[in-house]
Amino acid sequence: MYLSICLLLAFTSCSATNDGQVIDSDNPQQTDTLNYTNPVFEPVLADPTVVQVGNEFYAYGTEDNWGEEGGYHLVPVIKSKDLVNWELVGNSMDKKPDWKERGGIWAPDVTQVGNQFYMYYSFSTWGDPNPGVGLAIAAKPEGPFVDQGKVFDSEEIGVANSIDPFYIENDGKKYLMWGSFHGLYLTELTADGKKPTGVKVQVAGNHLEAAYVYQKDGYYYLFGSAGTCCEGANSTYRVLVGRSEKLEGPYLDKDGKSLMDSGSGTLVVGRNTSGNGYAGPGHNAEIVTDAEGQDWLLYHGMAKQKPKLNNGTNRRVLLLDKLIWANGWPSVAGREPSTTSQQSPILD
Q1: Among 20, 45, 240, 345, which lies 20 to 30 A Cα-Cα from 80?
Q2: Catalytic residue among 42, 109, 128, 209, which?
């Protein structure tokens, strides 16, 4: 879908059909809801997270400057009723948190907690010696999310490059999993979710970031991204998975190798190996199950023929594909992003 025409400074709501025609959401036109072709949103929604509220989905991404294709966005939020046709809502934050002097707000993770929406986010610059994780809370999924301050930084928690948070509740307790190429870690949170408590546990090794955990059939499936995220068409980013009977691990891949070991992880989706397609597919959002019981995976990737915006920003578009489970293990068909017309999710 092509949103470049409508992402102007006025933040006019818009969406797009699968043939690339931009439509005004205030005057919606009939769209083909039976099929779609990737990407489902562009120009950028990096490091996506998604939350369902009623019959609508809200997705959020890393702070980015979309340049002439839409301008600056502080944690953009988009919404959809079908996971295919998305419209830009705007920025989910009114202002940047100020507990660090400088940095970007990266890789948000949004979850409904009671009647509120919690956004755990990374606050970091490239090569930051002391990045950290913060929490913002909103009454509505579109925001505004109001900053609650720092949850922890790398020095306090004792884990280098502490970014990419993922929130999960388990046995009535709140937990946060996080980390980026210095191990993935798990810690319990205080009852208000604002600070870590207890002992941190390492659950995966130094080759992964962007943790996400999904519970299915008695297992906790730990998804993580490996490789380089942001080298345009040369990016090697990909999604790997392991599973465990306990949240704290140990997590093993399909071959029985521990996710603590380098080179471990069963491939879920990687770059298209032939043709144009997408490079660097990774940092998946939460899995969405449709009305037919089919699981769907949202993640970002870069079209090889157009991997960057004119301003040099990585053009990480939003991709959607079925998640196929075979013998207890998930993957996208062919373990590559789809590039042809696919059947849309059935959500009615």
Answers
A1: 240
A2: 209
